[in-house]
Write a structure and sequence with these properties.
The complex is a heterodimer.
Chain A (H helix, E strand, L loop, with lengths): L4 H17 L3 H5 L11 E6 L8 H9 L28 E5 L9 E5 L8 H5 L5 E3 L5 E3 L9 H5 L6 E2 L9 E2 L5 H5 L5 H5 L5 E5 H14 L19 E4 L18 H9 L1 H85 L12
Parallel strand pairs in A: 1-9
Antiparallel strand pairs in A: 1-8, 2-3, 4-5, 6-7
Chain B lengths: L1 H31 L16 E4 L13 E4 H10 L10 E2 L2 E2 L11 H21 L9 H4 L16 H10 L10 E3 L4 E3 L8 H4 L11 H18 L9 H5 L1 H5 L17 E3 L20 E3 H7 L14 H4 L13 H6 L7 H8 L3 H7 L30 H10 L17 E3 L9 E3 L1 H12 L3 H6 L41 H15 L19
Helix pairs in contact in B: 14-18
Classes of the chains: A mainly alpha, B mainly alpha.
């Protein structure tokens, strides 16, 4: 995508450093106390109401401007095969025949369940997925690097990939019609459902609604809401008259949110990532210090050496000066002696003869 | 050299022969094993499958339990003029249900009884050149799945009446009681009970299990009558337990009442804990009970009298008693989950096809609406005095409450209703309103339980026009159902879903397959 490896690694380091500075290691990757945004929205799917008309698939296709399907939405025969969501369809309805305890065929809609603590988001290392306070799990294609970890992480096998798109392929999944919700509209599938098999509302109200239906129609439902607890809870939930496994819903997922399962390992990641700046700074500091000491030692040696040579020079100079002085003195003495000898000779000559040209008195 | 080659050839020949003989031996063993479904009845579901696993009581089984087809053996033996006594020993009055023994002495003895007797007979039969059963272990001890057509069996009013006629109304032929002093079975006229009051699922000190009781007394009588070439019931497994055979059992249409001193009509009598009856109307309106009508509507007395023929109030006193497992009278009559309670049984009746159309879509209200109480609880009749006997009081009250499903006059029921307020993609739907009402009423006309609860002409309308007072002109659907997903009232569907849910669910449970729920133009025509 449009990000360079250098800047990506830079973010990773920054994210790690930020994480390691947060409250504690356990909360860095997974947040065990998060019970969902209190006012978050959701949808309750009632299997006992669904008539299998595929209107929701059609509406989804239309509002999300997805490509036209190979077979028209009015063709109910496609439900004879078990289908999954793909890059061209965010939701599909499957038919289940001869389910024990059911009078006729049953239908189950599948789409992104918008987990309270989404596995896709926890697996994504570029934070392309966001759990919004309104409940929707949305995807930001601008940061996606196309690793498809989200597809592996999702326990409901929902995110799909645009394999047939050569340039900038995207992860495709239900958006909870986030743009429509922002405009105050219902999700496309919910709006069109002719029997309100899909009920839109606050998640906590939907749970209450489900329990009200259980009480009002004894024997119609099994007393459980799929998605109330599964994987830590989902925004889209299902109620049914037959066990969920009969409708292809996994009952082995447990109630622990995905981030909780990986937080132990992932919580180490920020520490490792956060260590790098500290380590490198340390190495830098140590090498700096070493350089400084070396420099200081060198300076001291130089100063020492300079001092020593200066003293030597001084002594030499002093010697030279002393010698020069001596020489000068000797020369003077020699001159003086010569002069004295000359004077002595002149005096002797004068005494003996005539003083020639030098007064004999004023001699220094 | 030549000698060596011939010896090699001889060895090869011997080896080949040995291998061939081994193969033949294996095949013959396997060939004798499939005594499994013979050609004539192969694959057909059977009602005579018995799993012989009696050794389980002594510990884990070493080999798979034997899947034993009882009727195949009785047929084979009857060809040799042998009957049940060929395998079952006489135990006092009847034949024991056990094979060739009366008690299970020990693991070894029981095992030996089976091994010795089964294989002996199979060998004997095979020696006589007849088709026979296996004689090797795996022949019998193998896991094999045989399709079962076995169904639980019980006596209904019709079958009971046929027995009464066959026995010339001699109840003592079957009914008995235990005389605790003489420690023997005696018959007391007017004290006949349901078999299952004493004969429970498992044998207890007081009585043998229902299964054992039926398989000794019933079959014994049938056998004796068959031997005398009289009209008799079946003595084979499938005769009673084959689901297809059960459906073919002749039904007597108008079964006369069984008289055992029960009242025709009575009032549900409240009784204090000390056994003292509460005088009617001292607390609340009484419930007149039409005993005759309820006898006709149920197949057994057990439907209400679940563990004794006494009046409900004897055990289920006002406050509850030990005999009634502390289920007080109110609970005994109103608990919706109990089959033998008034409300439980009446609720169950709502599941009938002709009732479910309206009732399946109705939310259960807990506690129920008080207006429903007066369907059963009636005020004191003007003519009643403190001396009026309960049955006379009940007769007076019931006379004023004839079970008839009422409805409004045709001209007061709109003929068609055009549903057009939300018409967008399709044309308005034209609903044949009057025809629907008339059909619903026709379906339950003559049904006494429906008649008892639909006496008001507006009640039937409530199937669709629910949650509003009973009226000749009820409010329109749109009065309550407006925009979908009203966050303050999620339980109330929007108008479109309200229509669809009401119509589709009713059609579904009433078995109206057309138009299908996904066939939009079946009800709404496309806009031109």
């Amino acid at each position: 995508m449009s990000i360079s490896r250098r800047s990506f690694l830079g973010w990773l380091g920054a994210a790690g450093a930020g994480g390691s500075m947060a409250a504690g290691p356990a909360r860095a990757a997974g947040n065990g106390q998060f019970a969902g945004y209190p006012e978050s929205l959701g949808v309750l799917f009632d299997v006992t109401r669904c008539i299998g008309c595929r209107k929701c698939e059609e509406a989804c296709n239309k509002v999300n401007e997805l490509p036209a399907p190979a077979k028209p939405f009015g063709d109910l025969a496609v439900m004879q095969t078990r289908r999954r969501t793909d890059a061209k369809s965010y939701t599909v309805v499957n038919r289940y025949e001869n389910v024990p305890g059911a009078k006729g065929p049953l239908y189950r809609k599948l789409q992104c369940n918008h987990c309270l603590e989404p596995a896709c988001a926890s697996a994504c290392f570029v934070r392309a997925f966001t759990k919004n306070p309104n409940g929707a799990v949305t995807y930001d294609e601008s940061v996606c690097v196309g690793c498809r970890y989200c597809m592996i992480a999702c326990p409901f096998e929902i995110p799909t990939y645009e394999y047939d798109r050569a340039l900038e392929p995207r992860i495709m999944k239900c958006t909870f019609c986030q743009p429509r919700l922002a405009k105050g509209l219902l999700p496309g599938c919910v709006e069109i459902c002719p029997v309100e098999a899909l009920t839109f509302g606050r998640r906590r109200d939907l749970i209450r609604l489900a329990h009200e239906r259980f009480a009002q129609f004894p024997g119609r439902y099994i007393d459980a809401i799929y998605g109330e607890k599964e994987m830590g809870g989902t925004a889209w939930m299902t109620i049914s008259g037959v066990p969920f496994r009969e409708l292809g819903l996994r009952e082995d997922l447990g109630v622990t949110p995905a981030p909780e399962l990986t937080k132990g390992a992932l919580s180490v990641v920020p520490i490792v990532a956060g260590m790098w700046p500290v380590l490198l700074t340390g190495i830098y500091a140590i090498s700096q210090r070493r350089d400084k000491i070396a420099r200081e030692e060198q300076a001291a040696a130089v100063a020492d050496a300079v001092g020593k040579s200066q003293a030597e020079a001084k002594a030499k100079l002093a010697d030279a000066l002393a010698k020069a002085e001596k020489d000068k003195k000797a020369a003077i003495d020699k001159e003086v002696k010569k002069a004295l000898d000359a004077a002595k000779a002149a005096a002797a000559a004068a005494a003996a003869g005539t003083p020639a040209d030098a007064p004999p008195s004023k001699v220094s | 050299m030549m000698k060596e080659r011939s010896s090699l050839r001889r060895t090869g020949l011997v080896m080949t022969l040995a291998v061939l003989m081994l193969a033949v031996a294996i095949m013959s063993v396997q060939g004798s094993a499939p005594a499994a479904p013979a050609a004539d009845d192969a694959g057909k579901p059977r009602a005579d499958i018995i799993r012989i696993d009696g050794l389980r009581q002594f510990g884990a089984l070493e080999r798979p339990a034997v899947v034993y087809l009882h009727e195949r053996h009785t047929q084979a033996l009857s060809k040799k003029n042998k009957d049940c006594a060929a395998c079952h020993l006489p135990d006092r009055k009847y034949l024991s249900t056990k094979f060739k023994r009366l008690t299970d002495a020990s693991r070894q003895t029981v095992m030996d009884i089976y091994h010795d007797n089964c294989t002996a007979c199979h060998r004997q039969t095979a020696d006589a050149g007849e088709k026979s059963g296996p004689v090797v272990c795996a022949g019998c001890h193998q896991d094999r799945a045989v399709a079962s057509s076995w169904a639980d069996f019980g006596m209904d009013r019709s079958l009971h009446y046929r027995h009464v006629k066959a026995q010339d109304s001699k109840c003592e032929a079957c009914h008995h009681q235990v005389d605790p002093v003489a420690k023997k079975l005696v018959y007391v006229k007017g004290k006949e009970d349901d078999c299952r009051f004493c004969h429970l699922e498992k044998t207890v000190d007081r009585a043998i299990s229902m299964r054992l009781a039926a398989h000794t007394q019933c079959i014994d009588c049938h056998r004796k009558r068959l031997a005398e070439s009289k009209d008799a019931g079946p003595a084979t497994c499938g005769g009673c337990h084959d689901a297809a055979v059960q459906r073919k059992i002749a039904k007597v249409k108008d079964v006369p009442r069984l008289m055992r001193g029960q009242p025709d009509v009575t009032i549900v009598q409240a009784v204090q804990r000390d056994g003292q009856p509460v005088a009617p109307f001292t607390r609340m309106s009484v419930v007149p009970f039409n005993h005759v009508a309820h006898e006709g509507a149920n197949d057994t007395c057990r439907a209400c009298h679940h563990s004794s023929m006494d009046a409900c109030g004897k055990c289920h006193t006002l406050q509850g008693s030990k005999d009634g497992k502390f289920v007080n009278l109110q609970t005994a009559m109103h608990r919706a989950s109990a089959q033998a309670s008034c409300v439980g049984c009446h609720d169950g009746a709502k599941a009938r096809k002709e009732c479910a159309g309206c009732h399946a879509t109705m939310a259960r209200k807990d506690p129920p609406e008080l207006s429903g109480c007066v369907s059963c609880h009636m005020p004191k009749p003007a003519a009643a005095t403190p001396e009026t006997a309960p049955k006379d009081m009940a007769a007076m009250l019931l006379a004023a409450r004839k079970p008839v499903t009422a409805t409004f006059a045709d001209e007061d029921i709109p003929e068609t209703v055009e549903i057009k307020s939300i018409s967008k993609q399709y044309q308005a739907a034209r609903m044949p309103h009057r025809k629907i009402v008339q059909t619903l009423v026709k379906n339950i006309q003559g049904n006494t339980i429906a008649g008892a609860f639909h006496r008001d002409p507006g009640t039937v309308c409530q199937g669709c026009h629910h949650n509003s007072p009973v009226a000749k002109k009820p409010p329109s659907c749109a009065s309550c159902h407006g925009q979908p997903f009203d966050g303050r009232n999620l339980t109330r569907p929007g108008l479109q879903a309200a229509y669809h849910l009401q119509c589709m669910e009713c059609h579904g449970v009433m078995g109206l397959d057309k138009p299908t729920a996904t066939d939009c133009t079946g009800c709404h025509k496309d806009k031109i």
